[in-house]
Write a structure and sequence with these properties.
370 residues, alpha+beta, five-stranded antiparallel beta sheet, 27% strand
Length: 370
Amino acid sequence: MYELTNVQRPCFGLRPVEPHWISMELKPSPYHNHTTIAYRDGLTLRKVIFSGKDRYTETELNEQLSEDLKYLLPKTDKGKPVLLTAASLEKRGGTGMCLACVFSRSPSIDLYHQESQCCWYDSVYDGTSISSPETFAAWVEQWCAETTREDLDAIAVFAQRKRVHVKYKEGDIFRFKLNRRLYGYGRIVLDYGLMRKRKEPMHDVLMGKSLDCAVYHIVTEREDVTVEELQNLPCLPSTHIMDNHLYYGDFVIIGNIPLREKEDWPIMYSDSVNIREQAVHLQCGRLHRCLPGAKALFGWRQFSQGSTKFYLHYRMLPTLLACIEAGSNDPYWGKKASNFDCDLRNPRHRAELEQVCAQFGLTPEELLAP
């Protein structure tokens, strides 16, 4: 079973295994393809590691055990002890830092602080893909070899973060991490939760507290980029994201640029999701149109743009660098992924956009940002 060493753990903000801790191999679920090792300090579980062909996850814990070491004790007086197994322990929330790497399905690496809900590194942005325990071990070696004293100090501070709740508003400019040393900057261009609160007419198909955010054409090691430096830069097409990263302070707000009358907003076009209503809806920002009795011109929900992600753009770092070099968003629109093929703003869907606009008596210029 692969496991980080105590020399490597500080590079990820993880607590080293103390000499007096005792390891316990837990009973696996029938569906698990990995080994689960927990470390206990007396009757307190301090760490759990899931390691195998499909994943590596190391999580800090603070869980209490029964005297016979067979049960996890409840968090509250109303709870009941549960049998200590790999599955039951995985359901418990951790404390402090967590390193989670998935090798199968959608490979990813996440290094985050569980209590504050903030992320130090997420491979979804730089496109790093780990497909096996062997490639993960090599990635760990490289990460640790490149770790500087400044990196160790910074992640040690990050590992002590407290949870915060941040108030945000439309037009806010924020900084976010593209990898552990590079930053990107973005802007909130629409708050759908605010539209619901105001009871504005809308094609309400987005789940959760959804925001539209646009990312500026900038990749930098600087944390002190100003609003004035950003305001004239072009942006990637805006996308729907959950508000978690802003609400918990993971994306740091640095200023505000008030919204213009027309921003770059996703175009949502689809049949009604209400089975009792036959209608087709069009939404772009605050512009909403509904045609009762009509049907969408294309495949069911082909251009709906009705999903809300937890991140900004997949593989954003290479995409941003390509767009900055090209001086346009052509490299972004040149991708073949489904989310680009289902976006009416994509230049290769100009004919479809004109048909949609004609159906509602509009022009593309009334939807697209200048």
